Give the backbone structure.
Amino acid sequence: MKTARVRVDLSRPASLPKGRVDRSKLDATTEADLAVQQAQDDAEAMRDAARFVRRVRRRLGLTQQEFARRIDVPLDTIRNWEQGKRHPTGAARSLLKVLDRMPKAALSALN
């Protein structure tokens, strides 16, 4: 693969490399359009998180109740994650990643 170095002077817009940007569409984009796109992106991220939690739980062969008990979180939390109402954060997200990649080791460590 060939690498090209480009010098860009931000004070001179003409020095910016040519790209595949439709300037007319970019200029026509409003703040409302951006807000709609952000909301759609956020909703898709919630659906992705819900699918991930459900996939991990099913790979372990556990019901929602069993899964909640094994990872020591309330059943409602699992339900909210899987329904896309909330998403796991911090330590819970890390635990789910470990459960996804090394399920036997993670479950034995949780016992």
Observations:
- Residues 31-60 form the longest helix (30 residues).
- The domain at 33-110 is CATH 1.10.260.40 (434 Repressor (Amino-terminal Domain)).
